[in-house]
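Inverse folding, one chain.
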């Protein structure tokens, strides 16, 4: 389907964009940077939770230290809720 191909392209573009955002560092505005990354996925690209989650989890590996799954999930849920 064309729509599926379009969504896949959008997800790939979002992943490339997210890769340019430096990982969050504890004590150096880490919350804000992580929330910004989640907002990019939810607001700029309009991705759903299932589309965003694997991208944000992969980006989280660049954070020092990485966020817990619960913390990361909360940030993405807030970005999706506030961004709609």
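Residues assigned per position:
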């Amino acid at each position: 389907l064309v729509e599926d191909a379009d969504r896949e392209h959008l997800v790939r573009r979002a992943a490339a964009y997210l890769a340019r955002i430096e990982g969050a560092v504890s004590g150096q505005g880490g919350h804000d940077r992580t929330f910004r990354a989640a907002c990019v996925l939810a607001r700029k690209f309009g991705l759903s939770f299932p589309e965003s989650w694997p991208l944000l989890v992969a980006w989280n590996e660049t954070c020092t230290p990485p966020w817990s799954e619960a913390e990361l999930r909360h940030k993405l849920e807030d970005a999706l809720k506030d961004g709609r």
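The chain has a mean pLDDT of 94. The chain is about 70% helix and 0% strand.
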